[in-house]
Every structure is written in structure tokens, then in C-alpha cells.
Amino acid sequence: MKRSIAVFIVLLGFPLVMSAIDNLFYVSFASRVIIYAIAATSLNLVLGYGGMISFGHAAFVGAGAYSASICIAEGVTSAWLGWPAAIAASALAAWLIGAVSLRTRGVYFIMITLAFAQMAFYLVNSMKAYGGDEGLTLPQRAELGLGLDLGNEVVFYYVVLFFLAISLYGLHRVMQSRFGRVVVAIRENEARAEAIGLPVHRYQLACFVIAGAVAGLAGALLASHGKYVNPNVLHWVQSGTLMIMVILGGVGRLWGGAIGAFVLLGLEHVISDYPIPWLAAVAPNYPQHANLGVGLVMLAIVLFAPHGVAGLLSRRRGA
Amino acid sequence: MSWILILEQSLNGLQFGLMLFLLAAGLTLVFGIMDMINLAHGSLYMLGAFIASTLVQATGSFVAGVLLAIPATAAVGILLEVSVLRTLYARDHLSQVLATFALILIINELTRLAWGSDAALPMPQALSGPVELLPGLRYPAYRLVIIAVGILVALLLFILVTKTRVGMLVRAGASNREMALAMGVDIKTLFTLVFGAGAALCAVAGAMLAPLFAVQVGMGENILILAFVVIVIGGIGSIRGALVGAVLVGIVDTIGRAFLPILFGIFFQPRVASAAGPAIASVMIYLLMAVVLFFRPQGLFPARG
Amino acid sequence: MTSRMFVLALSLAVASGAQAASKVKVGFISTLSGPSAALGVDIRDGFQLAVKMNGGKLGGLPAEVLVGDDQFKPDVGRQIAEKYIRLDKVDFLTGFVFSNIMLAAVPVAFEARIIYVSPNAAPSPLAGKQCNPYFFVASWPNDAYHEAAGQHATNKGYKNAYLIAPNYQAGKDSLAGFKRYYKGNVAAEVYTQLGQLDYSAELAQVRAARPDALYIFLPGGMGINFIKQFVAAGLSTDIPLIVPGFGSDQDIIRPVGEAMLGLFDTAHWAIDFDNAANKRFVAAFEKEYKRLPSVFAAQGWDTAMLIDSGVRGVKGKIEDVEALRKALKAGKFESVRGSFKFNRNQFPIQNYYLRVVGKDSQGRLVNKTIGTVFKDHGDAYVQDCLMK
Hints:
The structure holds three protein chains of three kinds. Chain A is mainly α.
């Protein structure tokens, strides 16, 4: 808890430092990292704590992003309407997809979540009215009122930081509660949980829906951040990217999603922007091959450090 | 709606389905016998195409290049199996998914470093013209060759799996792995062989389709999903299921792309109709899979039990 | 006393801020990978060659060109644009091949009041209702080649035509443009998926429809595959194929080969143009890159020359964006197409020619000019543009 508060104090001060040196690009970049942290955290709930390998999580981020975007495109610019609409839309999608998918197990569950996500991708892709595969450019970000201008990068940063804090705190409380303990019990041994009379399907579905809703919020924030949404946000490769973040950061650990998002996006940026001389001598185009590094790191983690970076950190501190 | 049109579109669907079968067959065996989700299967398809393009250029002969690409890709597959994938058999499905997803990234980038983002595999001159199947229907010769190769490989596979000893071991492993182990089957070698065979099939598909499409990095991902859909519909571990599933998917996809836009064109504007057709076709394939999973989760021709 | 010093210090600060820039930074983002990479590569090569021939300068100032690859993905293109504009603080943005990627990225430039000079894509909304003072086109309005092709089809007396294009803004523009000048009957209007590579289904439909002519707009890898499959299906002997100039230039001739001979197309430029600028460009390009330039390379070159004329026109003071705009709009540069003139919506007004794929004096496949289809042709949307 103490460490979390310390991290937040640093995060609070960050944009002020950046403003002082007139580098708003990094404030915007940090906002994007935080939004992905929220999305990855929501996946962590379902994947890390719940043990449900959902390969279609990007569909919920996309549902939120498109709902929020369509609202703004149609003139409904208030965030108080657009963002709850996004959360509702993705929660509904999660409920529908979860109700069907959770009747299956193991690899079939993975495949069916993947299938649903792809269906959503193709459907959105065919919506020519909202850009189709060209995507939809928004005239503005959502409006929050209260004297806060979301067009201001620093203000936007604090708003998304606020949502990250809530998500993490929410995850923390949920996992401490009875609900959380049941979810973990189901993950550890489903047969036993069923045997002692727990309504497994209902708990899993609830977990799925909560995660979907938070993912939808992340999607809405993402749409406002870039003022642009595109069907690629629903593609299964995006689901894979979110999974990489969770694994990288630490499955089933509170900060896992956030750490993963920070490490992955940060590395991507550093590799493409800051030339490493010795690497450039060997392979001049190396920034274009950044994914090689990502793949190798991920493979190494899966094979040798299954608990991710958060796992390594906590292992070093305690026993 | 002429006879010729329907016949031609059916041939197109068959051609697509047979190539999908080649990919699905390897995937279903690996999944069925080793219980491993291998997302990198599409990467073997891509490697098959790239390796074939280099060998065709080197030997100057299309046939030689394709034939040599098959063992070459199988060798890469076996290398992959022995080094990395073997350690994943014992792990849970999530680890397999993540590790093979990481492999996709790695293989894609290594391919880009070795060949660049794309390669060219030109169609052999002799086959680049049409063949007059019926008066008024001149179908591309090359696509007919693909259909022929697909049917030939399917027959070969059937003979291999049903009439040979190795095939019997494969079927035993697919229907009950623990029992096969208990009966003393050399599982390690069997797994490696199956994986190599799967890679070889991918190479055939990749090399045959390369002259029609672009050979490019990332071409494996799109077709991988379809292959998974096929094996879920057909039944994991069943080659027969893979064939039926693949042809089904091929036909649904082609019908969707060919006839739905016409149907929608009656009601909607051309741009909308053209977008809706392929989208609905894609959705139909996934819907089909979801329905099969819901009512018959083991697939149409389950290998187990 | 202190207040006077304060005013002095302030005015010194303001004065130093208003100094002329010491170099020109250009953000160049294009499709440099994938089946359609040849187009982006050609534009980039033409652009960079022009800068090189100018001694590494644009308008007298040293030029720094940042090159990014949009990988044929609109969100990637947009992200790179954001980085170039907000982090690297480029003075110009340019490069996009495809309209859909460009449309996703240019709002970032417009918002930051950075000028985008298009070396290729120029979709109709930006010519008409959404015309923007920060958008300049060095190539042609998207519809133009298609309008010329439609006119050619009318001139040839084809009674019905079958049309195919990809389902995105430029595709829609292309067939709308063709139909604007084609007076015959449209047998069918088919939109394929962007990036689609297998046209077996569509070719079966074409065969069944038996049109007098087939008009396709399938740039890059799509066109290469379509033409190959068209020939393989035995349709090339029955149905005349007409394409816009960018569907039959060097990037497609190289992979398809002799099957292209005799193909008619329409364009604003051909390699055999007789003016001094073009001769210089073709010779330099062949020498530097050991291959023949396509219309894309010519456009890349002209874009650099246009930017050069703009910077020269403000004598290096590119921070004055309004003056820079005026200088660009004057369009005073030696274009490889001959004379160059902007319409009031900042799209070019120029001639369009009929070309045919034939062999040059060295037996190489090139597009040869055989006639003029339109003279001083603008676009159909300028009346909706409220810019002066």
C-alpha cells in the first residue's frame, strides 16, 4: 500500500515537470500509457485472478471506444453521457459473450472468445457510416464540464490518472472481498468449487462483465485521447498485446497490468526514438524490428519467469 | 445467375477450402495428440512460402523449388519443436498461447531481417493461362492444379493415417494419449514426426498459394484464425473433420464474397452492399463455429471418445 | 528604471524569437512495407533525389527529412504524424500514398497549423466542402485520372463498362469520377476489400457479365494480383482493360511484365515528356536508383520542388505560416509535367493524357503518350470550397 501511494505521488508530479520544460508530447504519451494500464488491469482481473484466458478482450475496449466515438460524432459531446454509454455497451457485450463462452472450457473457451472478437471486428469494419476501416476522426474530445478542459493535455492526464487509481483500488478491494476469494478458488480448482456448491458460472460471468466494463471505460478514454478510433482496436492481435502486458507485468498481481503497459509501451518508444549505437552497427534498421525484442522477452518470461516483472520484484524483497 | 457462374464460384470455394485443409490438418494433429495450442502454425505457412520463393529462384524451376521447400520447412518445424515447443507440452494452455504468440513475433521479424517484408514467387509460365473446362468457362489452370494437389495430399494423408503403422500410432495418440504412453509408444519421436508433418503440409499450402497472393510477413496470422475455426468445427484431432470443416468454411466464405453483395445490392447502395457481403461472410464462419461449439463442443467428427 | 529594463528584455526576447529558422524539417510518412510498398518507396526516392539535387536544401535552407513507415495502417500513420508534429516539431508533413491513411493523420497537422503537401492522395472532400488552407496537392485531384479514363471510354464508344474499385474513399471517388465522363451504360459497380489479393470471385462475375470494357482502380499490390489473375483466367483476350495511370506504371509493370503490353491508361505525366525539368529528373533518377521512375516518383520530386519554391518565396522565414501559404499557392516551380497552376482550393489545374504501355528505344516496358484527353482540367468539387 505504501509503495502504491509513493508511485502515485510521482505520477502526480510528472506532468508538472513536463510542462515546465514545454514537453507536452510526453504528457500525452503518458496518458496513453495510463489508459492501456487501465485496459490491462481489467484483463488482469479476468485472466490473472480469474484464470479465464479470454483472447477477445480487445472487443470490449473497442466497444467502449466506438460507443464513445459515435456519441461525439453524433453531437453528444458530454462525457457524463458518452462514457457511461461506453461502459454500458461493453458491459452488455461482455455479458452476452460471456454467457455463451463460459459454457465452454479450456481451449474451446479461448477459441470462442477469439471468434466473438473477430466477429465484432468484421462488423465494425463494415460500418461505412462510421468510417469502416478508415476509422473515425473526432472533432473534439469529450466534455467534462466542471471547468475542466479535456483538450488540455495536463488536465486529461490527471483525469485518466484518477481512473487508474480507482481501477487499481477497486481491483484491490474486490480481491480482498468474499467475491474475490471465490473467484480465486474457482481458478485454483473449479471442480472442487462446484462440489462445495458455489455457483461457478455466475461468479465467472460477473467477473467477466466487470472486466469488460472497465475495459470499455479504457476504450472511451482512448477514443477521446487520440480523437480517432479504428477497427484495429478490436483485432485479436490487440488482445494479444494486452495479454503480453499482463504477463510482462505480473499475472494476478495488483500492479501487473499497469507495469506491463508501462514497460511495453515505454520500450517501444525508447527503441524507436533513441538510437543505440552498437545495435545500429549490427543491424541498421533495428527500430523497425522492435517486435523481435518484445517476442524474445515475452518468450523468456513465459519460459523462465511466469510471474512477470511484478513477480521478480516481490521475490527479491521477501522470501 | 448462370450455371457457369455457380460452377466457377464452387471451384473457387473448393480451392480455398482444400488449401485451408492443409493447414488445418497439421494443426489438428498437433492439438489432438500433443494437446498444444500452437499459434505459430501460421508462421510455418509463411516460412514455407518464403523458403519456396528463394528455392524457386535458386533452382530456376517451380516444381523443384516447391518440392525442396517442403523438407526445408519441415526441418525448421522440427528444429522449433525440439528446441522451444517441447518444453511447452507440460505447461498450461495460457503459457502455450503466450509462448507461441511470442514466437509469431520473433519469426515475423527474423523473416523480415532475412528476406525483407515481402518476396515474390511468380506463377510458372506454363500454368498461367486458362483451361477450357466447358464452353464458356475458362478456369485458371493454376487453380485447377491447386485443387488437384489438395485432393492428392488429402488422399495421401488418409492412406498414411489409416493404412500404416505410424498412422495407427498417430490415431492412438489422438484418441487417448495417456493410454498410448502406457502402451509404450515412443511419444517424443512421434510428437516430433507429427510436428514435422504439420510443417510440411503448411509448406505445401504456402508455396502453392504464393503465386496467387503476395508473399508477405504477417500472412500467417489471418489464415491461422480460419484454420482454428476449421478444426473446432471439424473436431480436434480428426483429419476427416479438418477436411469437412475446411471445405465448409471455404464454400461459406466464397458464397459470402460472391453472392451476398449481389443480394444486398438489391436493397442497399453498392458501397454498403460490397462491404456488408464479405463482413457477413466472415461473421457467418464464426457464427458457425460458435453454434457447433455450443451444441456439439467436440466438433463434427471428434477423434476422442 | 526596472520597468524600462523589463520592456527592453522583453523586446529582445521577442526579437530573437522572430528570427528566421535555420533549417527546414520535413516529416515524410508513407507506405514503405507490404505489397504496395513500391509506391511509397518511389515517392520517397523522388522526393529525396530532388532534395539531393538541390544540395541537401529546400528553398535555400538545409533540409532534414524524417522518414516513417505507416505499414498501410491508418492508426500507425496517425501515431507517427503525432510524433513528428508534437515531438520533432516538423515544419511540413508529406508522403502518404493512400487516402484512408492520410485522412486519419492530417487532422493532426491541420490542428497544429502545419502544412501538408500531398504527393499522391487528394480525396474529394478536401477539394470541396472540407477544403483546408493547410492542405496543398502536388499531384492531382483523386478523381482526375478516372474522369479522363471515363472520357476515353466514351470516345472509344464502349457501350457498357464493368467497374471495380476498393471500398474506401479513393475507391468511391474513382468510380464516381469515371461515371462523370462516361456516357455509356454501367454494367456493374463492384467494391472489393482494401488490400484484397484474391479476385477469383470477382473475375467469375466479370466473365458472366460480358462487358465491352472493364475499368479497374486497384493500386499497388491489389492491381498486380488482379491483372495477373485476369490474364490467368483467360479474360484478357476477350475484354479490354482500362486503368488509371497509377494502375499501370513501373511498380506494376515490373512484377507483371509483358502481359501489360497494349494496356491503355490516363495520367498527368509520362516518362517521355519533352520538357527540360523532366529530362533532368528521369536521367538523375535512373542514374541514382538504377531503375525507371514511375508517376509516383515524379510526384515525389514535384512535391519537394513545390516546397522548395514555397520556402524560397518567404526567403526562409517559414515561421510565418500565412506568407508560406501564399508562396506555395503561387506554384512557381519547374514541374516535370510542364506548367503548373493551383485552383483556388489548392488542387492543381492541368492536362491529362492518354498513354499506352509499349517499349522504349531500349526495349524496356514504359508508358508512351499518345494523346491529350483533357486540357486545363480542374475538379468537380471546387465550387463547394469556401476558400478564396
